[in-house]
Amino acid sequence: MRAFTALEMDALTEAFNLSLGEATAAFSAIVREEIELSVPVVEFVSRDELACRLQSGQAGGVEDRLCRISQHFHTGDGFATDALLLFPEQGSLEIVRRMLGEDTSVEQITELEQDALAEIGNIIINSCMSSLADLFGSEITGSLPRVQSSSVARLLEDKSPESLILVARIGMRMSAHNLSGFVLFLMDVPSIDHFMGQVSRLFGLPEAPAEQP
Amino acid sequence: MKCDSLLADCVDTGLILLDRAGRVRVWNRWIAQRAARPAAEALALTLAEAFGAHIDPRLALVVREALDFGWSARLSHVLHPMPLPLFQPGGERSERMLQAIDVTPVDTDGERHCLLQVHDVTETVRREILLKQQARQLRQDLQRLSRAQAELQRSEMRFRELARQAPAGIFEADSEARCTFLNERCEQLVGHKLADIVGRPWLELLPAGEEVRVRDRWLLAVESATRFTEEFRYPHPDGRPLWMRAEAGPLRDEHGHISGFIGTVQDVTEFHERASRNEFRANHDSLTALLNRDRFERHLRAAISGAREVTDRLALLFIDLDDFKQINDTHGHQAGDTVLKVVASRVRRVVRCEDRVARYGGDEFAVLLVDAGDDLTLASIVAKIAHAVALPINLGHCHVRVGCSIGVAVYPDDGADPHSLLIRADQRMYGAKRGEL
């Protein structure tokens, strides 16, 4: 697989930034409170590298659990991706409970809280997907969100080690709460090439990096 | 489609299928009951037409996204409590049913549709509220408990430190008098470690006679729930005979029953020794250790009142040393004291233990013979005394001899009261002295 140029990455960041802006608006309307989603940092990494990075980035150590909201997307012409939103479980629960107006903490995520997390993930993932759909100029069908929570170590176990992951790191700020999460798009190699072709075309970039001087 | 609607009517979820134009194609029985509108009326209407304009705007938005872009969405109860005007079947129409809605694109017959699955989460919400209440309650209980525990720990530590530093022995025992706690001082006092006597009533450590007496007192205290205060003899395992004083107050269990006692133990041996020394001094002559006059007369009175009942004969003997003054003058007062001590001891040896011997004053002695026997026996005792007194007395640098005059009065023959007996014996003693002269 070819590497991506700085220009291409910039273009991608720009696309995500626009769509996250819309997600922010949708959110604020729902919870009637100002919510800020930071400008995402976009990069490609392998599964294992990401797992490594998630573990080392954990403030509370590897014991901390992550909450994972996932949706599957596919197009009619064979492009498929799993979109994952990862949040530290504790922080995301705090936000949901704030929305619920609850201060009572129960050790486990309740059914309703899980549903609320699903919707939050749904809004963020759908908005990111809208920008990808724009790039593709074609329709991407998505499944309902699914919420799981697991330790960092086991989080990506069900994904193939070869899969390359498009990672958009976003921060979410709501009142006193600061939450940093990741939006991941896991694609197989054909999907990635297909995807980059669309990126280059949309932003009028050269089809492939110039090999000759 | 007939079969589809049959299936749709059977599920316990609200199902609404919208076509590309957003018009109702399926409106299952679940929805019909809760929207109070039959399928026949709702078919071909838009959501807004079917429900009126009371729909959560986000629902309209995600339905549009599903139809136009093929995206799925979930409307959670938390963020959208009641997106559709649905009501519990048979219930009041004043409050909307609590819902969660899944919106998914469905492609059938080559055309894009949108499926709404509506879930009634009323029960879930009720359950979770309950769960959180319980969690809150539990947390409060836990906080209370840990506060109480901390307080308990503090007071236990306080007690332990107090018990450690206390100069008195502190003990705790159950109602059967089995020790459950001894502080260090108490272990030293009784000469046993708690571990060695645990499970055994402490009363068993007492000598047999004391054990019975003190056990009665203990049982009385348990029964009447009063303070236990007792002094008793205690043989220390190292051999010292001690006197102990135990004072304890009752402890009650949660039902108010006496569960045991907690209190102090003190070594009162010295106090007891001093008291008995004082008592001895009060009743005895300090030089000869014989009874003093006071005490002797008390014994005499007691013997007479006792004798009246058993018709015994009592004999009262007055002994006066002859020429004692001369010994004093010749050999000094110290020699005189020695003579008095020797005489006292000899008279004491001649009579039986139950007889009383007293130094009546100066060189005068008195003897009370209980159960004096007949005149012959009495005469032989008097002779023995006279003989014993008359034996040579070693003064260290020489021997001296001292004689004595003895007057005898017998109860009831010579008098029925102490006074007349004393006078009689005194007269006879002087008679004897004069006879000698």
Detail the poorly predicted runs of chain B.
Answer: none
**What's the overall average pLDDT of chain B, rounded?**
88
Q: How big is the Rg of chain B? A: 54 Å
From the spread of the alpha carbons, the general shape of chain B counts as rod-shaped
| Total tally of structural domains of chain A | 1
CATH architectural category of the largest domain in chain B: 2-Layer Sandwich
Number of domains of chain B: 3
Question: Residue ranges of chain A: pLDDT <50 for 5 or more in a row?
Answer: 209-213
Percent of residues in helices of chain B: 40-55%
Instruction: Characterize the quaternary organization of these chains.
Output: heterodimer
- Please, what is the CATH homologous superfamily of chain A? CheC-like
Radius of gyration of chain A: 17 Å
Report on the structure:
- The complex is a heterodimer of chains A (213) and B (437).
- Chain A is 43% helix and 27% strand.
- Chain A is α+β, with helices and mostly antiparallel strands.
- In chain A, a hairpin with a 2-residue loop joins β7 (164-174) and β8.
- The longest helix of chain A is centred in the first third of the chain and has 26 residues, at 6-31.
- Chain B has 437 residues and is α+β, with helices and mostly antiparallel strands.
- Chain B folds into 3 domains: 2-120, PAS domain (Beta-Lactamase), CATH 3.30.450.20; 166-273, PAS domain (Beta-Lactamase); 286-436, Alpha-Beta Plaits, CATH 3.30.70.
- Helices cover 47% and strands 24% of the residues of chain B.
- Chain B contains 15 helices and 16 strands.
- Chain B has helices spanning 2-10, 29-35, 39-42, 47-51, 57-69, 122-165, 184-190, 194-197, 208-224, 269-283, 293-310, 324-331, 333-350, 375-390, 418-436, and strands spanning 14-18, 24-27, 73-75, 99-108, 111-120, 169-174, 179-182, 228-235, 241-252, 258-267, 314-321, 356-361, 364-369, 393-394, 399-400, 404-411.
- In chain B, the strands form 4 sheets. A 5-stranded antiparallel sheet of chain B has the order 2-1-5-4-3.
- Chains A and B meet through α1, α3, α4 and β5 of A and α5, β3, β4 and α6 of B.
